[in-house]
Design a protein that fits this description.
heterodimer; A: 417 residues; alpha+beta; Alpha-Beta Plaits; DNA polymerase, domain 1; Dna Ligase, domain 1; 5-stranded mixed beta sheet; 4-stranded antiparallel beta sheet; B: 87 residues; mainly beta; 7-stranded antiparallel beta sheet; 0% helix
Chain lengths: 417, 87
């Protein structure tokens, strides 16, 4: 990049799910603000979705962590208040925040349901100094929408994101390149974006404990030990990142998975879950206009051991039946008969769906299959997804389509800035 | 005023070029009997969109059991429901 430097905001909602639930409750007449007591948003333990999705700041004082089981959280804090997740509410809150932010810049990127990048470059003329504008945005969101946000300001997306994480809640932080040695380098290396559970121990073995250590490390050594990822995080530690604020990059794969309320122990039931997931995955593929050349099946056993297998298809497809057939054959090869608690199907290696390469070895009725898929999609869109289903699901207690579409449309976490 | 947020049965008019106007509503009393209250005057109207949920708030005045009371009604656009918000 040449010329004047960019100004990027990263807006991050503080304990998003919990704050949104709190505001909704207050608006509907609740007298207690659940942000002020130990409270969490958690799934339904009876369906085995019982993990903490978001926590209040008082809950944090009990060492409750996002992602741990509600059972473990209750042990730490017996009086803990638990509320179920409400995704429709979260989408509404996120939309309202985006509407407000659109007043400040035409260039926005929804990074996840509760995080937005905003390009403030050249906007000083309209809204003044970036710090003042950020304070104004933060205060307006609180006043009009009722929840608090952190805003990080810098010259690229990475530094803005690191800045918004400094201290919470309801704060504005800056992290311009000249502030890196003072504000970024003393932090533990795990705090850096893209340094996670797997990378951190490797860096510790190299004697790298802070982001500053990483920034000063020898890039050749990092490349040797961590491949290209080593260079990426070395650049990040030095604050170098230069992706534009733009729409969410095109999707790389489409997948759905489900944690099942009971352990699956027989092949027939497992196949039904594969079909149910394939229906959703294929429908989303067709809806997005892609064909997939890769099918991945992932399993999680009763004792939380996860593994996955994948297979390339000879020709790209969006047909429910072909994806299901591939998933079944992968599953039959990999499954050792252990009880399963979660099953996932993912379609990857996507190609544009406007042209379709056929194969001599494909079943001859592909045109009919395609017409049938289209008809089923049409019925489901118009009358609801349960209006038409495969007979195998009748009286089975298994849903004919499995997997929330919503979470995938607003990714919870992404490695792409 | 205390926050009540009690759902009420409402008779309102919806003018062709404006926002709804509440006229009278029915609310269950503490002993369970229904009580009908006529809205004598609308003092002012505000709007909120907390959590992205639009609600109209009407500051109103009525004579209830012989005394003049000021209170607030709320209309939730999303669900088309009326509430006695504060009294």
């Amino acid at each position: 990049m040449t010329g004047e430097r960019k100004i990027i905001f990263h807006i991050d909602v503080n304990s998003a799910y919990l704050s949104w639930e709190a505001v909704d409750q207050l608006q509907h007449g609740a007298s207690l603000d659940i942000r002020t007591i130990p409270a969490v948003i958690g799934g339904n333990p009876e369906k085995r979705h019982g993990i903490v999705l978001a926590k209040s700041i008082p809950a944090k004082k009990y060492q409750i962590k996002t992602g741990e089981t509600l059972y473990a959280a209750r042990l730490k804090c017996p009086g803990l208040a638990i509320f179920p997740p409400r995704y429709d509410l979260y989408v509404r809150c996120s939309e309202a925040m985006l509407d407000l932010l659109r007043e400040y810049s035409p260039s926005l990127q929804r990074y996840s349901i509760d995080e937005v990048f905003l390009d403030y470059t050249h906007m000083e003329k309209h809204f003044g100094d970036p710090r003042e504008a950020a304070h104004q945005i933060k205060d307006r969101i609180y006043r009009e929408l009722g929840f608090t946000v952190n805003i990080g300001i810098s010259s690229n997306k990475l530094l803005a994101k690191m800045a918004s994480d400094f201290s919470k809640p309801n704060k504005v932080h800056t992290l311009f390149p000249e502030e890196i040695p003072e504000k970024l380098w003393p932090l533990p290396v795990e705090d850096l974006f893209m340094v996670g559970r797997a990378t951190a121990p490797k860096l510790h073995r190299l004697g790298i404990y802070t982001i500053g250590d990483l920034a000063r490390a020898d890039p050749a050594l990092l490349k040797k030990r961590l491949k290209s990822h080593g260079l990426l995080i070395w650049n990040y530690a030095n604050g170098r990142e230069d992706s534009p604020v733009g729409d969410f990059p095109g999707i790389k794969s489409v997948g759905n998975s489900s944690t099942i309320a009971f352990d699956v122990e027989d092949r027939k039931t497992a196949h039904m879950f594969l079909l149910s997931l394939s229906e959703m995955v294929a429908m989303r593929l067709r809806n997005a206009g892609y064909l997939a050349r890769l099918v991945v099946v992932s399993l999680k056993s009763q004792d939380f051991f996860s593994y996955s297998h994948q297979r390339q298809l000879y020709t790209a497809t969006d047909s429910t039946n072909r994806i299901y057939a591939a998933a079944v054959s992968i599953f039959d090869e990999m499954w050792q008969g252990e009880p399963l608690r979660a099953i996932g199907v993912r379609a990857g290696a996507l190609v544009d769906g406007s042209l379709q390469q056929l194969s001599l070895f494909d079943p001859g009725d592909w045109l009919k299959q395609r017409a049938m898929d289209a008809a089923v999609d049409k019925i489901r869109t118009k009358y609801g997804s349960n209006m038409i289903m495969r007979a195998v699901f009748l009286h089975s207690g298994i849903k004919p389509l499995t997997g929330g579409v919503w979470e995938e449309d607003y990714p919870m976490m992404s490695s792409l800035l | 005023m205390k926050v009540l947020m009690k759902p009420v049965d409402m008779i309102a008019t919806y003018p062709r070029d404006g926002l709804p106007i509440p006229h009278k509503y029915r609310i269950a009393d503490t002993d369970g009997t229904a009580r009908v209250i006529k809205v004598d005057r609308i003092l002012y109207r505000t709007e909120e969109k907390l959590a992205g949920n639009r609600m109209l708030i009407y500051r109103c005045q009525s004579t209830i059991a012989g005394t003049q009371r000021v209170y607030e009604l709320k209309y939730e656009l999303n669900t088309c429901r009326w509430f006695l918000y504060k009294m």
